[in-house]
Amino acid sequence: MNNPDWLTIDAGGLPRYVPRRFEDSQLVNCGFSTRTGGVSKPPYHSLNLSLAVGDDRDDVLANRRLFASGLGVDAAAIVVPDQIHSNRVAIVTQSDAGSGAIDHCDAVPATDALITNTVGLPLALHFADCVGILFLDPVNSAIGAAHAGWRGTAANIVQVVIDAMKCEFGTYTANLLAAICPAIEGNCYEVGDDVAYHFEEMFSGDKSVLGRCENTKWRVDLKMANCVLLRRAGVREMNVALSRQCTSCRDDEFFSYRRDGVTGRMGGWISLKRM
Ligand SMILES: [Zn+2]
Q1: 259 Cα–ligand 1 center, Å
Q2: Cα(256) to centroid(ligand 1), Å
Q3: Cα–ligand 1 centroid distance for 130 (angstroms)
Q4: H-assigned helices in the chain
Q5: Residues of the chain with pLDDT > 90: what percent?
Q6: Spacing, Cα 247 to ligand 1 middle (Å)
């Protein structure tokens, strides 16, 4: 990968992608995992980080400890939402530490984004094709993470997160850093008229987001759509790190729901560093 906005960090055979500006800030431990370096068996091989996809629980917990230790966060403290493709954002604090960490039953209910300014509280969202978006307000030391599939994108979860960060932490969008993690790209993501309709409404004429396939289908690029939504919300283009990695194209590196159906999930985790 040759993208100056993203670093590859390899901690003991466990590679992760890290947005450079986030790393340079020295304010956060964060990263987007790959599928390699874990203990899960097929079809979850090997670093599946989700307890919600039918994998062996002990394997997932072992994988989470591995990824957490590479990141320098506490696996027992992670806050995990029960992702349902909504645009609901939850503000989490120390009392939420460990929600969904050991058992998915006590995950933050029906939520697709988390924000916090609590130091040492890792936000842990999970992905296989959907877009992970990480947020850092370096001025107010606040963070966020969002899960945007087509429904969350069409419901503009990015704007909901930014509004919540403004309201809770006094975030100015001019200072906000955002990172769009590896996810499925437009050439691999065909949709029908029902889905295309929403994107036509929101992004009419923007060919980077919505285009026709050779057949009767459409292609939607969810990463580009969220890029546009970040810009519309007032985030500066220079403050957005866009990954060009496609999860569907790289079965050696990423899980892909579109490609594989039953499969694992990568983690987009972020935590404010203890100083
Ligand atoms: Zn692809």
Answers
A1: 10
A2: 10
A3: 12
A4: 20-25, 57-71, 150-154, 157-169, 193-203, 222-232, 257-260
A5: 95
A6: 6
Terminal C-alpha separation, the chain:
31
pTM of the full structure: 0.97
Spatial separation of the C-alpha atoms in residues 77 and 51, rounded to whole Å? 15
pLDDT in tens, 88-138: 999 999 999 999 999 999 999 999 999 999 999 999 999 999 999 999 999
Residue 129 Cα to ligand 1 middle (Å): 10
**In which band, very low, low, confident or very high, does the pLDDT at 13 lie, cut at 50, 70 and 90?**
confident
Q: How far is the CA of 96 from the centre of ligand 1 (A)?
A: 36
Q: Which of 84, 91, 230, 267 is nearest to 164 (CA)?
A: 91
Surrounding ion ligand 1 within 5 Å at CB are 185, 188, 246, 248-249
The whole-angstrom separation of Cα 216 and Cα 124 is 37
CA of 50 relative to ligand 1 center, distance in Å:
22
Query: Which CATH entry fits the domain spanning 6-185+240-272: 3.10.20.30, 3.40.640.10, 3.60.140.10, 3.40.50.720?
Result: 3.60.140.10
